[in-house]
Write a structure and sequence with these properties.
The chain has about 325 residues and is of the alpha+beta class. The chain has two domains: about 200 residues, Nucleoside Triphosphate Pyrophosphohydrolase (Alpha-Beta Complex), CATH 3.90.79.10; about 100 residues, no CATH class. The strands form three sheets. It has a five-stranded antiparallel β-sheet, with helices on both faces. Strands 3-11-12-7-10 form a five-stranded mixed β-sheet. It starts with 5 loop residues before the first strand and ends with a helix.
Length: about 325
């Protein structure tokens, strides 16, 4: 049997977390160092979470979530004119590095079901990420120290013009809900890189795909395919190994709107870690799994720096 490096961290009052390494180079001693040095940094999480991230709707199932692209089918998102040159430079730079402008679905207007969307690409998001500074890539075009948000405002544009692509946060409940899973996400991820967060995914639906207009195939079938691929790639879970709970929609004023989907499995996190251990595909996404009981979640959020959108989603779960 595969021996996965682990470390148990005592939180006091009978509470603890278990950390599982998915990387053979990340030993139990290194896990211990990472967890111990991170404990106590939870206060670094933004205190503006509640105002920036808002709960918008609850759906009993992901399969209830549909798209409204009537009159928009085939239309493409356009980066604001003041950022077009930046967008072109990102494409040239990232293409040369072997990156790919993967398809994303970009929400237009209020986040509600059905989602009103247009087609976009990941480079569109990269070119409109509010906290980034275009002057670092194009110093002769954009002022130093000015962010994308600064440039939009200076040009009389709303930050709502950014590429608000839709993502999913996976709230995973192994051991039939007796455990909760968080991960350390890999560096370089588009959203929430190198931070404690949930696993997640970016729906890559192509809106002008002919099959979406035909009876018998559409968004519900896409969601089934999407979750099957994500669970297989990241955790080696197949349909039948996991099932879905409810979905909550959240607006994030400074990042991207997202849905938090509850996912349950009978497998323990220890079993999941053994299945995913030393898999190069998995390591591109995350290298540490954190296990805790539901009762431990509030203490973990107080003491560890968890991605703010996840903190907001868990507030609803714990309420």
């Amino acid at each position: 049997m595969i021996q996965v490096p682990t470390y148990r961290h005592d939180l006091g009052r009978g509470l603890y977390i278990d950390a599982f390494s998915l990387d053979p180079e990340l030993t139990s001693d290194k896990l211990s160092e990472i967890v111990c040095t991170t404990d106590g940094k939870g206060k670094l999480v933004s205190k503006k979470v509640s105002s920036e991230i808002r709960h918008m709707a609850h759906l009993d199932s992901l399969f209830e979530l549909t798209f409204d692209y009537l009159g928009l089918l085939g239309d493409l998102y356009q980066v604001p004119e003041c950022l077009r040159e930046y967008r072109e430079s990102i494409q040239a730079d990232w293409d040369s590095k072997g990156r790919f402008n993967g398809p994303v679905i970009i929400v237009q207007g209020e986040l509600k079901n059905p989602l009103r969307v247009v087609q976009g690409g990941h480079y569109d998001f990269a070119a409109t990420k509010l906290s980034d500074e275009p002057g670092k890539l194009l110093p002769n075009k954009y002022p130093q120290g000015k962010t994308v948000e600064d440039i939009l405002v200076a040009n009389g544009m709303s930050i709502e013009e950014r590429a608000r692509y839709f993502g999913l946060a996976h709230l995973m409940w192994p051991s039939n809900g007796k455990e909760f899973l968080l991960v350390r996400r890999a560096k370089g991820m588009g959203i929430a890189d190198d931070v404690i967060s949930t696993p997640g995914s970016t729906p890559d639906l192509v809106l002008n795909k002919p099959g979406l207009k035909k009876p018998g195939f559409g968004v519900k079938e896409y969601w089934s395919y999407h979750l099957a691929q994500e669970m297989k790639d990241e955790f080696h879970l197949l349909w039948g190994d996991f099932w879905l709970g409810g979905l909550d929609l959240y607006e994030d004023d400074l990042m991207t709107p997202f849905g938090a989907i509850n996912i349950f499995t009978e497998l323990s996190i220890a079993e999941i870690a053994r299945q995913a251990y030393d898999d190069p595909r998995v390591l591109k996404e995350h290298d540490i799994l954190y296990s805790m009981t539901p009762e431990t979640i509030p203490t973990f959020l107080e003491r560890f720096p968890v991605y703010p959108a996840v903190v907001k989603a868990l507030e609803l779960v714990l309420a």
